[in-house]
Write a structure and sequence with these properties.
This protein has about 625 residues and is of the alpha+beta class. The protein has 20 helices and 23 strands. The strands form five sheets. Strands 9, 10, 11, 12, 13, 14, 15, 16 and 17 form a nine-stranded antiparallel β-sheet that branches. The protein has a four-stranded mixed β-sheet with strand order 2-1-5-4. A four-stranded parallel β-sheet has the order 3-6-7-8. About 45% of the residues are buried.
Amino acid sequence: MLPNCDLNDEEGAMRLIEDLTTNAGRVQQEVLNKILASNAETEYLQSFLKGLTDGDRFKSDVPIVDYEEIKPYIERIANGDPSRIISSQPITELLTSSGTSGGRPKMMPSTAEDLDRKTFLYNLLIPVINKYVEGLDQGKGMYLLFIKPETSTPSGLMARPVLTSYYKSKNFLNRPFNRFNIYTSPDETILCSDSKQSMYCQLLCGLVQRRQVLRVGAVFASAFLRAIKFLEDHWREICSNIRSGKLSDWIIDSGCRAALEGGVLGGPDVELAESIEAECGRRGGGGGGSWEGIIRRLWPRTKYVEVIVTGSMAQYIPMLEFYSGGLPLVSTMYASSECYFGINLRPLDDPADVSYTLLPNMAYFEFLAVDHEKDGGDGRCNGVVKEEEEKVVVDLVDVKVGRYYELIVTTFTGLYRYRVGDILMVTGFHNSAPQFRFVHRRNVVLSIDTDKTNEEDLLKAITNAKLILEPFDLILTEYTSYADTSSIPGHYVLFWELETRIGVDQHGRRPEIDKAVMEECCIAVEESLDSVYRRCRSKDRSIGPLEIRVVERGTFDALMDFCVSQGSSVNQYKTPRCIKSETAIGILNSRLLGRFFSRRTPMWQPFKVGGGGL
């Protein structure tokens, strides 16, 4: 099912893309036939199809499912049951998703062949970008790539994030040489489990090779901006290392030290250190340090910044543009822990216009139509399934331009008619294959990095925090939230309107808000959020301390007035639990009584599987 894709045959790769997209309908049918033929005897499919492999029966008899419905099967495999309950191929590892179930990361099955499928998609990215950007074989890419914590399940299978899986695989570590895809970061620095040491060493490598760098990037925009912030804090030390030719003593990872001392850091280079110091220390017009355009200045040959800037990552575009000095922002691919889906065939498009072409050989795709409605003044598609279409799905080639759909996948690894949770809009077709704009995740209201907090989880966390208010005769009457990415790292902001049971004193004044109480509320919310959020806060440091902003009485009435003025029905108005409108945020900020932050990080430890599951 996987056609050969030679890294060094650019024309052949482009012909392959044309063939797959021209014959998308036929390829999809072949994919479904192969999945059913291979897995008809699995326990899961047997329960619905009784060994039949008919595609029509599959669509009529196999239900569309969420994670909670397949979770028992995955937990059984994690605890030692054979892979054949869902897959004819051996499950070789479980990929932890940024989505959660019961506060723990979801786990998706993966196979050895699935690594080859991911490699196939990665190999298509190079010929596509080469169509638009010349000369990428004349230098290197400074890609900042990192691994995350992993754990072993009772069955012995590893459970880890999808990118950690790939970077540790032979597909990545034994990748064939390709002159268009040479990294400044040695593999040892990517595989360093200490994120601070890894970040420092990768940035040091990128700066030592700054004249060879033609493109820079990370997987997500948030991770790349975190690296720039890290560089702001550490450039003097990095320059000291370059000047002396010696690595800082606190870098104790043996792989990092060997890679840098034995190769990249070739010896003292005073001239290079001084040139980097001149750029990092440049003063702005107002006398302060200015890092505007720092990427162009430090890596002057850079042609573009490669990061995902679609979906929730779009909030970082202004800051990326500030640091990059106008370099193109390139989102190359659309993927998740469940499956790698497709690629961007027009990589230099403006971020707002990015569309991904789903490759029909990656999985079997179906689409559930959703209603494009607005609510609460935040201007976001809710992804509400239309009642009359609730049980109707369409195939890949039958979607309609301009319509919104939720993605459903059937994979080679044991997921059948699984709701990924992504809401997509069809923007057009490349041959017979549709192209989609990623709109948002279903039910997610807050996201800074890889965290995805939905309305239900936010409500539970706030409900726990409210208990702290009760001994002080305080009542939370309304709340909303937004993801503040005006600084790095970004953080969650909650707006709370409070009422007191004891009313006002003889002078008409209300009791002052106790700072210590509100700070405890902040950490109580954080402790109640899921493990992905707490990992980002405590280990990755990719999310800043949660903030509660207490507002005056009547503030949420003013918010309602604004939303109604924007077209919301006063009779059907519900306070939006997340806001994105700058005007709405301004209304809330104009009525602040106090701002409070978490003073410690929430507890987090790698999740364990067993003894009752996730």
